[in-house]
Amino acid sequence: MSKQSNARKEALAAIEEFERTRCHGGLSKGDSALLNRLRSDYYRDELDTAWKLIGKYRKSPEDDQLLIGCIFSAWHFALEAPAMIDAYNPVTKDFRQLRQCAERLRAFFVGGRIQFQGAQPTGQVEQLLQSLSWAIETFDRGQCQLSTLPERLGLNRKLDGSSVEARRMRFTTKMCEAMRAIFRRPLYDAVAALTNIVLETEITADTVRGITQARVQRGAPLGS
Q1: 116-170: per-residue pLDDT in tens?
Q2: pLDDT of 14-59, one tens digit each?
Q3: Is residue 11 packed enough to be buried (19+ CB in 10 Å), middle (13-18) or exposed (0-12)?
Q4: CB atoms inside a 10 Å sphere around CB 14
Q5: 111 exposed, middle or buried (CB, 10 Å; 0-12, 13-18, 19+)?
Q6: Separation between Cα atoms, residue 127 and residue 163, nearest integer Å
Q7: Distance between CA 36 and CA 123 in Å, rounded?
Q8: Please, what's the b/e burial string for 73-99 (b: 16 or more CB within 10 A of its CB; e: otherwise)?
Q9: Cβ neighbours of residue 109 under 8 Å, at least 6 residues apart?
Q10: How far lies 137's CA from each of 93, 104, 142, 196, 216, in Å?
Q11: Contacts for 180-186 with beta carbons within 8 Å, 24 or more apart?
């Protein structure tokens, strides 16, 4: 390999373009560190490998920008997904309690203990009951959305932990999804190379392939 290959030059140019055009609000300390790792000479071989592979299937320079954005998204998902789930757990409890309150109110008004007379009070009670029914349905939907959040995020028992292995699995899963979306193929070798840079870890293309195939066998195909 030459001191600086054409593939790495293209990658560095794409990274500079991404920072110039997509990061107007500035970067967090962690995001800046990620860009620095991508540009680092220490990972020059990994970046060269990844960009050589995607270069075979790139249709336009915009594909590079999309890919870099997906790298950031997958990285944040890898680090933050468990905390996202934990943050929503109290909200799920709130929805459950609100639903119970609405059910008790509705039961109170339809339980026959109060006698209503006149068209106006009766109509108002009917409106109240309709509103309570709507509230119960709304709380049900909210609770359902939150309870299915791990599944919709692509998490399972192996993916929702905070270990290094779980982070690698989350990152590689999302990056294979991104590769399929942009380049119509998972590009396992490129994902492995990017994982080594982004998470500062060691993973092989065979391991990435195994993670992806195991996910498909569990009935959750990429892109779901």
Answers
A1: 565 556 677 778 778 888 888 887 777 777 666 666 655 554 545 567 888 888 8
A2: 999 999 888 877 788 989 999 999 999 999 999 999 999 999 999 9
A3: buried
A4: 21
A5: exposed
A6: 52
A7: 66
A8: ebbbbbeebbeebeeeeeebeebeebb
A9: 125, 128, 129, 132
A10: 16, 14, 9, 46, 34
A11: 180/222, 180/223, 181/70, 181/223, 182/63, 182/66, 182/67, 182/70, 183/54, 183/57, 183/58, 183/63, 184/57, 185/57, 186/212, 186/222
Per-residue pLDDT, 216: 52
